[in-house]
Amino acid sequence: MKLFFLFNLVFIIIVNAHVHMVYDRNDVFDRKLYEEVLDRGECLKQMRYIVTKDPLLWARFLDAGYRKPRSLLKGSLNDLGSYYECLGINKNVQDMNIEGKYCMANMPLNQFFSLSSLPVQSELLGASWPEFNSMMFNIDNSTYNDLIKQMSIKKQLQGLVGITSEDNNISRDEESSQGFQISIRLAVCLPKPCSLHNVLETISNISSLRIEEDYCRIPNDKPWVAADYVALVIFTLLGIFMVLSTAYDIRHRIFLKKDPKTANSLYLSFSVYTNTLRLVTYKPVPGALECLDGIRAIAMLWVLVGHTYLHYLSAPALHNPLEIFDFIQSFWSLWITAAPITVDTFFMLSGLLLIYTTAGKMTGVKLLKNLHMFYLNRYLRLFPVLAACVLLQASLFYRVTDGPVWEVVAQQTYQCRKYWWSTLLYIQNYYNPYYVCIPNTWYLAIDFQLFLISPLVLVGVVGATKRTAWITLTTALLASLTGSSIYNFIMRFASGIFTLSPSREDQPEYFTLYYVNTLTRSSPFFVGMIFGYILYIYRGKTLIMSKVQVALLWFFAIILSSGVICSHYLVIQQDWDNQIVDDLINSYMRPIWALSVCWMIFACTHGYGGPINWFLSHPMWKILARLSYAMYIFHYPLMFVVNGSIIAPLYFSDEFAIQKTMTDFVIAVLAAYIITLFVDAPCSVLIKHFLGGNKKPAPIKPLDGTANPSEANNKNDSA
């Protein structure tokens, strides 16, 4: 326990010592291109022509921006203008090529100014600037305070999503009575040689108006880098291999009508036909835990729903963000605010399958002798899909589309280009927790780290007596619970993924120091190990339990799991302030949840699941469970791409959130299927071939997924 606690403490110190840099979008967009186009003299020349000689062109520039955000009193602080209309402006006149440049500008609320009294430089423009109402950007104090609360929630949500750039809508202000200064963000369409400062200077000497240029976009501002060329070459080669392999397979099976078993397994490894058959073909396997497919698939769906809402609520531009505050506090949001608990289901499954598939198959000495293969098999099993996603995020995902809030995707691209190696080494939750490449892969990091220390437990379980095994498993769980409890009571975290209470905002960083910390997330893994051993002991045996015992165990499982879920409603309220209960929840909520799900698995396996077992073991979950690993890896970056391409603020409602969830689900399934055919299935065959000797596997052997998302499509992954 001391070693485990010390291990995490050292990494926590590294986290605290890590420099918290602010993302610079110029590292992804073409910095030189922006600087090269700026020309104050050319800007004045083009502005003079546009305003005095081409009113239709001037109207196009005005139409693409220069509007106050709609529904300002509902918290809408961003006006996105017309991104594509602005960048589509391209007109050759006289000796000038007039092109549009899309910019975002920050303007603090509740500032007083008057444009009508300011002299317009008519000698330059020969026209007047459109009239503005000096009160159009002012709101009452009550709405201002509500906006501060909403922006605090948004900042916490964006931190959970993986958006770590500073929020440009809110900043500290010593002169403000509230202590904060809230700004609106306006889209501005300018001629390409101009900066916002040039235009304001050209129009009038506005000294009383505070407005700053945030960022600008121009056509073709995404430079090609090495990652783009590498991605094109690799995926082009994979496509060629797929075509050749599929052609060989079809010729062998259909035209020559030969036995599929006589085909070369390496030649078939990239075949769409064979890999699809392996994906959809299912054959019962003795000893398989059939209910795990349903549990894993439903848990994956819950993760997807939670992430959809999280991306939705933290969207860069919302039409009615003030309504989020009421939604989060409502009881009906519980299925979203409690969604993070489902990740502990996967940690539990990982520990359960690790023991269940290895106990009785080897001794501790044999395990230690083959420890290098134990780790190598695990690493290579996870590597292909993860590496493919990292490469796509660093390259093609960034280029696939665009939009006025594309800097969110640019940040993810920057993080993958800079920290791809820490993701592939599974240390990103400690080394760069603020800048994780593929933010949801923090789960893989913890899962792999727990796998690394698992031999410390396995050597006392595999091939050992029951007494030794129970002592080892119990000691591991108690060490995990004790270490995490001491840590939680010392650090005094809030117990929710975000807090609405102003008095709790100065507490330690919840996400980096607790949520992605291996120590605090380890207990479900060891609970799973214990139940994996119990399932191993009773494997193939008939277990007789009385109806009273079964009813009581189901009752306690339902009560405990419901209590874990409902606790999220209590701790998220504004008036919640009970640190002792927070510490208890943080320490024991996750193992209690794992315990409840473990009983469900045990009951279903031994005939005490009833309709629950029928539902979870239904074949409809098979394909979804087999795709779950690729779905988990790819759904998150694809959400960034979809949400980064919006062209107008979204309206928040449950109905639209459900529609987005269905859309994200379809996209995730299609992407998982494609990546399984392109990468996962071929690499699985190749890895088994080169690491498993010369044994020739059957070409249509079912891919029986029995583990968590990181173990899908590989029956004996943990062995």
From TrEMBL:
Record carries keyword Transcription regulation: no
TM region positions: 229-248, 294-312, 332-358, 379-398, 442-462, 469-494, 514-538, 550-572, 592-617, 629-653, 665-687
Pfam families reported for this sequence: Acyl_transf_3, NRF
Signal sequence range: 1-17
Alphabetical UniProt keywords: Membrane, Signal, Transmembrane, Transmembrane helix
Classification via InterPro entries: Acyl_transf_3_dom (IPR002656), Nose-resist-to-fluoxetine_N (IPR006621), O2_lipid_transport_reg (IPR052728)
UniProt KW 4Fe-4S keyword: no
Domain Nose resistant-to-fluoxetine protein N-terminal: 40-218
Source superkingdom: Eukaryota
Protein name as it appears in the record: O-acyltransferase like protein-like
Species this chain originates from: Galleria mellonella
Organism lineage: Eukaryota, Metazoa, Ecdysozoa, Arthropoda, Hexapoda
